[in-house]
Structures are given as C-alpha cells and as structure tokens.
Amino acid sequence: MNSADSVTHTSSGAFKAIHFRLLQLLITLGLILCIVGGTSSTSSSGVYQAQGTTKAGVAIYLVSFLALVVLAAVTMHKLSNAPSDDKRIVWAVILALPFILIRLIYSLTSVFSHNRHFNLVSGSVIIHVFMAVLEEMVVVLIYLVVGWMTDALTSANRGPIASRPWKGNLGGGDTPHSGNKRRTRRRQGPIHALVGAGVAAVQQKKQGNPDMTGP
Q1: Number of separate domains in the chain
Q2: Which is nearest to 211 in space by CA: 49, 45, 48?
C-alpha cells in the first residue's frame, strides 16, 4: 500500500482513489505547463521572461497544494485508530507541507513579480538556495526516510492506487499480449498522455528555435 492508499484507508471513506488520481493528474498538468513554458522563458541572450504556460503551471501547483492541505487536515483528525505505518506517512506529509509552501512561494514570486532578486537567471543565489534548493532536499529526505521505515505489503494487500495496472509507455509502443505471441497496443492513461504531450511540445519548440535554452 502506498501513501495515497494509506490515507484513503485512514480517512475512513472521506477520500477515494479517484480523488488522488485527479490530484496526481492536476500536479502532472502543472509540471508539463512549467516545463513547456520554461523552455521558452529564457532567450539566447540570457534574459528571463516568464511565459503564460509557466504562470498557469505555477497557479495549478498552488491549487494542488491547497488540496493537499485539505487532505492532510481531514486525515489528521482520523489517526487515533490508524496503524503505525499510516500515522507515520500522514505525519511525513504534514511535516513536508511547510517546506513545499516555501518552495511554492519562491516560484510564485519568481513568475508573477518583477523583483530582480527572484529572477531565475540573474536573481540572488542565496535566496534560490534557501527558498528552493534546500526545501526540495528536505522534502525528498523526509519521503525517503518514511519510505525506509514503512513496511512493504504484498500485492494482495495493496490498495486500488498502488495496484492499478500499467497504462502503457510514453512512446505508445507495442507490448506483448498476455498468453499470446501477438503484440498489441496498450491504452495509455491520462498521466502518460500528458507527459508524452509535454515532451512532444518541448521537442517542437527546440526544433523551431535551436538557440533556445531553459531557465
């Protein structure tokens, strides 16, 4: 059972697998928009100008963060009878939220303000380190530690999120059909379709402007 399955079980029906899948889809959409916008935000001369897609992606991140806060707040009140692993996962998510918020504030300021100290190319290195890099490292460390401390479950005990079938590959290639030599094309899920669309958009931008560099 992964973290989302644990929260689904702990929240006693308040959240279902579809809620986490929609949130995952929303975060992935924000990531794709930020990547596509980032590839054209910096000119060959090094001048940074945030694009509309980047602003939309960061705004989606903000909405996703608020959804995570609501999810954590609701789940926190239902931890009294939860297994120890579930409690550990929920508290890890709650502990990571302030660091994610600081990182999000940095992104919002960089994209929506004209403060030269928050410019992604020529801004303050100290601000970038203390409001972005360190926060990312701390969040990753928190999740790694809780992952090491959480017992792995067998496939029979996994929830609907961790046990969902693989939807296909990004390239849309063929995969072998079970029990048959014939090769068939698997249907891609929305997450893989979004990532594939983002990769294609980035490649198209780079082909149209070979001198373009990322932020």
Answers
A1: 1
A2: 45
Tell me if 45 is assigned to some domain.
Answer: yes
Give the chain's mean pLDDT. 76
| Statement: residue 168 has pLDDT above 80 | no
Owning domain of residue 22:
3-154+189-208
Q: From 73, 92, 95, select the one nearest 84 (Cα to Cα).
A: 92
Q: Residue 182: inside a domain, yes or no?
A: no
Task: Find the length of the chain.
Answer: 215
Whole-angstrom distance, CA of residue 131 vs CA of residue 150: 29
Q: How far apart are alpha carbons 69 and 37 in whole angstroms?
A: 26
Query: Is residue 213, in this structure, part of any structural domain at all?
Result: no
Q: What confidence score (pLDDT) does residue 21 get?
A: 87
Distances from the Cα of 42 to the Cα of 52, 115, 131, 190, 197, angstroms: 13, 16, 21, 29, 21
Query: What are the pLDDT digits (tens) for 174-206?
Result: 444 444 444 444 455 665 666 666 667 666 666
How many Å apart are CA 34 and CA 211, to the nearest integer?
Answer: 19
CA 159 to chain centre: 20
Q: Confirm whether 202 is domain-assigned.
A: yes
